[in-house]
Design a protein that fits this description.
The complex is a heterodimer.
Chain A (H helix, E strand, L loop, with lengths): L2 H22 L4 E2 L7 E8 L5 E8 L4 E11 L5 E9 L4 E9 L2 E6 L18 E4 L14 E13 H4 L9 H10 L14 E8 L5 E5 L1 E4 L23 H8 E2 L1 E6 L4 E7 L29 E7 L4 E4 L19 E3 L9 E7 L5 E2 L1 E8 L2 E6 L1 E3 L1
Antiparallel strand pairs in A: 1-12, 2-9, 2-12, 3-6, 3-10, 4-5, 4-9, 6-7, 7-8, 10-11, 13-20, 14-19, 14-23, 15-18, 15-21, 16-17, 16-19, 21-22
Chain B lengths: L1 H21 L4 E4 L8 H16 L2 H5 L4 H7 L1 H8 L5 E14 L2 E11 L5 E13 L2 E5 L10
The chains are: A mainly beta, B alpha+beta.
């Protein structure tokens, strides 16, 4: 082969690699404005008198949005409930997860919650569904707490659904358009990135703390979603699970602790997606977790207000992992540890692998009540 | 003289009403046979929730299981109970099941009176453990006490 041919082949190879690299880069981002087509609520909790209300808003002026709601358990990310919601422009969906008479349930009177026949929830026709016990009750998991995904299936304009004289869109028209005319929906990167949301954890008597959902923009679901088959992040979408690992990757987290407060970090790994144990073996779907829970190895560094510090490599935390004392073994990890100072902050640093795909939240409570704080982080 | 006497009487009535509201007992409701032969469990259950409703935190703490007393401490316990700003108005026991002779679960329906007199109905599973012949309450909350 001549020298010129070798140079040409080399150039073609380089160009191909460049094109391949461009094609692999995801368009998805974690939206700082809190709007997108994928929402993740890192914590819901029910039982022992506590309930969680959660809300999804479609901020679009002219697009209706159909989205799939998936509730997952805290240990093995099992689907405990899923359903579709149909949001007209400016619409808000709300529901409550609570414990009732021996079971965990989701209840809603919101007319965005509809059956495929277009029968929607209302004050006179409330919907109530029981959360499925994960792993048939045979594993150390439960529906009492977990996390929530809202995955936009697609968006559609009033040229397809029609609208009333006041500009509103009937729910039945959205339902019919979705099931009879999905080809007319905008999907993938064309879908509207107009969803936003938040959740409230409510004590009896309505004392509550709220937090915003993490919003991913341009997640890009491509296919019609239903409830017959489970929906897993990274499938049927422009964004892979590995892409989501990268988007959510963080090297260390900052947990603030105010005067005489107790700060409880809640660290959720929504890309782990593990399986129910099979003869003691668990399979993790997310690429980051394919190497096992070791990848979540961390150390805690405590700082007081005067920059005094102490490092804890093996803190006593809960849940206690079976092998390594300083890994985070579940999908939703609620950490309790003894903070040695009156006030200051804690750095949670991942040590085995530089960055872990985590969504963090801090439940902080003082003598005056409690609140959720965002978690600052390094990437 | 008469006016002062009337004002004093009005003040006493108002104070009495306020004290009366604060000490309004919990309305318990359950079938007479729901506890079966477990009378001590029933007594401690009624006592514990009456103490919680009255805000007698330290005495209620003594009815928490020894393990919880040791793991949580009174200070953390007090802070946690302050999150329950509503008043417990009613407590119904729907079912008592004892999977072990020393452990029982009570299916409860509670009514709380919150801000602006809004009633809030909450169901919960109340857990009790028998230690050295006495029944103790098992406090549970996966957010604030995951270690339990």
């Amino acid at each position: 082969m001549g020298r010129r041919s070798k140079v040409l082949i080399g150039a073609l190879l380089v160009f191909s690699l460049f094109v391949w690299g461009v094609m692999q880069a995801t368009a998805a981002t974690v939206d700082p404005g809190g709007k997108g087509d994928l929402l993740i609520y890192p914590l819901y909790i029910a039982g022992d008198g506590i309930q969680t209300n959660f809300y999804v808003t479609n901020t679009s002026d002219d697009q209706s949005v159909v989205a799939k709601v998936v509730l997952r358990s805290h240990k093995y990310s099992q689907e405990v409930l899923d359903f579709l919601i149909y949001l007209s422009p400016h619409d808000v969906f709300s529901a409550t997860i609570s414990y009732k008479d021996g079971k965990y349930v989701l209840t809603s009177t919101d007319d965005s919650f509809c059956t495929t026949d277009g029968v929607c929830a209302s004050e006179t026709n409330p919907f109530e569904f029981e959360l499925t016990e994960p792993c048939d009750g045979k594993a150390d998991d439960s529906a009492s707490y977990g996390y929530i995904e809202i995955i936009e299936a697609g968006s559609v304009g009033t040229d397809v659904t029609g609208k009333n004289t006041d500009g509103s869109v009937d729910k039945k028209d959205i339902v019919d358009a979705y099931w009879d005319n999905f080809a007319n929906f905008k999907t993938g990167l064309d879908a509207a990135d107009t969803l936003t949301g938040y959740a409230e954890v409510v004590f009896p008597g309505y004392d509550y703390a709220a937090y915003p959902a993490t919003a991913i923009k341009d997640y890009g679901n491509r296919d019609q979603l239903g409830v017959t088959l489970p929906t897993t992040l990274g499938k049927h979408s422009e964004t892979s699970l590995g892409d989501l690992d990268s988007l959510l990757a963080k090297n260390s987290l900052v947990v603030p602790v105010s005067e005489n407060a107790i700060a409880i970090p809640v660290l959720t790994f929504p890309t782990k997606l593990s399986s129910c144990p099979d003869n003691g073996n668990v399979t993790n779907t997310g690429p980051f977790f394919a190497g096992g829970d070791d990848n979540t190895t961390y150390e805690l560094t405590y700082y007081d207000l005067s920059e005094n510090t102490t490092i804890e490599k093996n803190p006593i935390v809960s849940p206690v992992p079976k092998e390594e004392p300083n890994t985070l073994p579940e999908e939703v990890n609620i950490m309790v540890y003894d903070f040695p100072f009156n006030a200051g902050w804690t750095k949670v640093k991942f040590t085995k692998v530089d960055n872990a795909p985590v969504i963090g939240l801090v439940a902080e409570f003082t003598e005056n009540g409690y609140t959720f704080l965002p978690v600052a982080y390094d990437r | 003289m008469v006016r002062r006497w009337i004002l004093t009487l009005i003040a006493l009535v108002v104070v009495g009403a306020v004290v009366g509201c604060a000490a309004t007992p919990v309305e318990f409701n359950f079938r007479s046979d729901v506890f079966g032969s477990k009378n001590r469990l029933k007594q401690n259950f009624l006592r514990y929730w009456s103490l919680r409703a009255k805000g007698e935190v330290e005495t209620a703490f003594a009815l928490e299981s020894p393990y919880i007393q040791e793991m949580l401490g009174l200070d953390y316990y007090k802070r946690y109970l302050k999150l329950y700003k509503a008043r417990l108005q009613k407590l119904e026991v729907k079912k008592v099941s004892c999977p072990e002779p020393f452990y029982c679960e009570l299916e409860c329906r509670s009514v709380w009176m919150g801000k602006k007199d809004r009633q809030d109905v909450r169901w919960f599973k109340d857990r009790w453990v028998k230690v050295s012949g006495n029944w103790y309450h098992v406090l549970k909350d996966p957010l604030f006490f995951p270690q339990l």
